[in-house]
Amino acid sequence: MNLRLYGLRNEAFGFSGLTHSCSNRVRFTSRENSKRISASAENNGTPSKSFDYDLIIIGVGVSGHGAVLHAVEKGLKTAIIEGDVVGGTCVNRGCVPSKALLAVNGKMRELQSEHHMKALGLQVSAAEYDRHGVEDHANNLASKIQSNLTNSMKALGIDILTGVGTIVGPQKVKYGKVGFPDNIVTVKDTIIATGPVSFVPKGIEVGWKTVITSDHALKLEYVPDWIAIVGSGYIGLEFSDVYTALGSEVTFIEALDQLMPGFDPEIGKLAQRVLINPRKIDYHTGVFAAKITPAKDGKLVTVELIDAKTKETKDTLEIDATLIATGRDLFTNGIGLKNLNVVTQRVSFLLMRECE
């Protein structure tokens, strides 16, 4: 059985007996390619003898959808297994809703700029927002793209198998919903495109509304007066922009000695000058959030900070909410890798990937 794992940005691009060459995007730019896809989609291919499918893709985010397009072009009998919602992280819990929120906060900042409004000859007494309306804006955009992806696969004749997909043995995959009998299908090759989940460091308890991940923050169920953001990568930076535009004060907690340590140095300096310094944002660097206690019984969230090097206690913050923005980790738990004796590192990363 040929097994391939695709993560956040690496997508299935070249199949030759399902061998794979690494690439960042799947592109179909010519009319000739489009015709080939349409022609191949008429019967969704004919499976190899003794198999239900040539290819099963577990997970249908951006990576899985790109793999579907190429598989159909190659005439492979293809099915997808989706246990959550079509579109994956990017459409439902990442790029799309976050950019929808950023578009809203961009308009808010424009309306809040008295100098800018005056230059246009406009007078705005007070810029206000409707939290539910902003939430609906982000959800509606995600739903529209989700629907488009689903319809595109139906038009291609792809079999959409609903439920949690698990590899039960060589060339066998089961799927099904909780509380219902599982179905087992046979397949020549399988692509794992289950995407990422929010990474929460050990010892941190995520609690509704007050200690949250980006998955929860995108729902915008609560806009706190003061929020701490643990981690100052792109996720934390985006949400600091959203929250400060909506009136929150933000405190970054960063384990390394500077904010945005993973950024190009020049980009990091520019981001700090434009997105952090002019806003209601302060920060602690070189510290860990050793313990975070969710708000309870009228008490605020408490965050205990320790020195990243000496592990000595540095400070304790009492705030309204905390966003855990320490990155994302590939989701591979429970999909049956152990049944194939696949070794993983750091919880979920495959020990070895084949890249040509």
Q: Describe it for me?
A:
- With 356 residues, the protein is α/β, with parallel strands linked by helices.
- The chain folds into two domains: 2-88 and 141-197 and 329-350, FAD/NAD(P)-binding domain (3-Layer(bba) Sandwich); 211-326, FAD/NAD(P)-binding domain, CATH 3.50.50.
- It has helices at 31-41, 62-73, 88-92, 95-112, 114-119, 131-155, 214-217, 234-245, 265-276, and strands at 2-5, 53-58, 78-82, 159-162, 164-169, 172-176, 183-192, 196-198, 211-213, 226-230, 249-254, 281-285, 287-293, 301-307, 313-319, 321-324, 328-330, 344-345, 349-350.
- The strands form five sheets. Strands 1, 2, 3, 4, 5, 6 and 7 form a seven-stranded mixed sheet that branches. A five-stranded parallel sheet has the order 9-16-10-11-12. A three-stranded antiparallel sheet has the order 13-14-15, with no helix packed on it.
- Strand 11, helix 9 and strand 12 form a beta-alpha-beta unit.
- Helix 1 (31-41) packs across helix 2 (62-73), helix 4 runs antiparallel to helix 6 (131-155) and helix 4 packs parallel to helix 8.
- The chain is globular, with a radius of gyration of 23 Å.
- The chain starts with a strand and ends in a 6-residue tail after the last strand.
- The relative contact order is 0.14.
